[in-house]
Amino acid sequence: MSDPNRPIVEREQRVTPLELFFDLVFVYAITQVTTLMSEDLTWGGTGHGLLVLAALWWGWTGFAWLTNMLEPEETFVRAGMFAGMAAMLIAALAVPQAFGTDAVVFAVAFLAVRLVNLALYLVAGKREPEFLRVVARFAPTGAVGPLIILGAAFAHGIAQTVLWVIAVLALYAGPLIDRGEGWHIAPAHFAERYGLVVIIALGESIVAIGFGAVGVGLTPGVITAALLGLAVIAALWWSYFDVMALLAQRLLSDTTGVARARIARDCYSYMHMPMIAGIVLFALGLKITTHDVNAVLDAVPATALCGGLSLYFFSHVVLRLRLVSFIRRTTSDRPAWIGPGRLAAALGTLVLVPVAFAVPALISLGLSAAVCWALIVWDVLHYRESRTEVRQARP
């Protein structure tokens, strides 16, 4: 058995099979969030789904930071990872009724996820006294948030929702307390971990196509919707992995200490969350679209289909602004490649929301695909040299 008191050593490695195994449970949890929202196609149901997703994301991101500091294949850490997986699985099973009959089950399971995470952080703290002080500072918010969710399980209506909002705010406030001090970030491993979760979310959109086609049959309309849905998903993949993921990773590699930790916190833990939420919302709209391609979408699925894409691209805009502002503060070099394309795509898909209220779902999906691929063409044609520069300078 490995020594839990062995000092933390900064390492660069690939994501391990155990981490990928852990992520399988998170894949299922994301699918369950889509199920929650699709079974309650109201603004309230969508809001509940996003609150649950925000909590689950924070549970996942806690383990992403943990395995970046500790070797996940160590015996003690491996046991903790399995315990976290078990708790996450029970929470995922309870997601469709997280605001109903399974509210207590979800809350207890999510509390267990956070407690296991904090326990493993304490293991890391034994190896690094400075980090133990960091854990002591943010642990209260890590525990208080889940406890508030547990309290919300015994409330109803607006009171339950308000308690959930307070709980999520408490969870997300924790990393702001330590200001990035005491954390050890392995850039390549960290960026790969978050890149893989983006692929997981995109995979959920593909799964949504399959669920939407259940019981409908492979009509020409369904086949067309499937191909258009895949075209949008491919464009979302391209817009993230072509340059943005490489640029963020390079910035992590070029910084150290507190600066690196803050970039990791802001650009990955915080700014990737709305990106994932946008993909999940799009998956919800895609599922409804595939099920009845000729129907005009109701307000919620129409907003999810186009508004989810808008949220995804707006998240890119904010992420790029964060990266560029940091580069400007730390170097006199020309700011990193950034253009108006993503802002135009975000606004273009947002404008499509009212259009989706009036035209068949298949047309809404086709227009969305056109906007997404217009962005890709714009990037390729107008930023050829900048794209090449960033891709050749990958870490």
Structural commentary:
The chain is an all-alpha fold. The protein has two domains: 7-184, no CATH class; 187-395. Helix content is 79%, strand content 0%. It is built from 15 helices and no strands. The protein has helices spanning 17-39, 43-69, 75-94, 103-127, 129-152, 157-178, 187-213, 220-241, 244-254, 257-270, 272-291, 299-330, 341-356, 361-382, 384-392. Helix 9 runs antiparallel to helix 10 (257-270).
Keywords:
395 residues, mainly alpha, 2 domains, 15 helices
Layout of secondary structure:
Blueprint: H1 17-39, H2 43-69, H3 75-94, H4 103-127, H5 129-152, H6 157-178, H7 187-213, H8 220-241, H9 244-254, H10 257-270, H11 272-291, H12 299-330, H13 341-356, H14 361-382, H15 384-392
Helix pairs in contact: 1-2, 1-3, 1-7, 1-11, 2-4, 2-6, 3-4, 4-5, 5-6, 7-8, 7-9, 7-11, 8-11, 8-14, 9-10, 9-12, 11-12, 12-13, 12-14, 13-14
Mean pLDDT, all residues: 87
Fraction of residues in helix: over 70%
- Briefly note the structural class of the backbone: mainly alpha
Range of strand content: under 5%
Distance from N terminus to C terminus (CA atoms, Å) equals 34 Å
Question: How would a textbook summarize the main sheet?
Answer: none
